[in-house]
Amino acid sequence: MSTAVHVILDSSAMVAAGRGNSLASRLIHRAHAESGWFLYATTCALVEADRERKGTAEHIAALPGFTFLELDLPAALAVAHGHDDWAVAHTLYAAQPTADRPEGSVVATTATSLWEPHPVRTLGLNP
Q1: Cα–Cα distance between 34 and 45 in angstroms, integer?
Q2: Positive or negative CA dihedral for 90, 95, 101, 102?
Q3: Which of 28, 53, 77, 117 has the fewest Cβ atoms within 10 angstroms?
Q4: Range list of H helices, 34-124
């Protein structure tokens, strides 16, 4: 029996996907084509990615297989008390273990050093 794989794209991974990063593309394809692979994007990271590269939000929103994690009240409270960067704080909050994701989620990123101080597993998308 295989374990489900839950991956959250941070804003850098979303921008990379929009630019045609091959590793990001493979990850997106795998999540769409294989059962047990789940991709997530937080709304704060989606906004940050679009600020960095216009059109990224629409591109990511049009891709199959994504679940978009809203900035609901618990997430907003975590962001308010967390990191100054809302995209990082929301992604970090979303990556923590939950009832649906008991082992938490892996953060896909091209900025692995950004996540080093945080208790989160990362998947580097730099070729």
Answers
A1: 25
A2: negative
A3: 117
A4: 43-52, 56-62, 73-80, 86-95, 112-115
Residue pair 107/120 in contact by the 8 Å Cβ criterion = yes
- Residue 2 DSSP symbol: P
**If you count them, how many residues does the chain have?**
127
Q: Which two three-digit tokens encode residue 74?
A: 């618990």
CA of 67: how far to CAs of 3, 8, 27, in Å? 18, 9, 14
Total-model pTM: 0.93
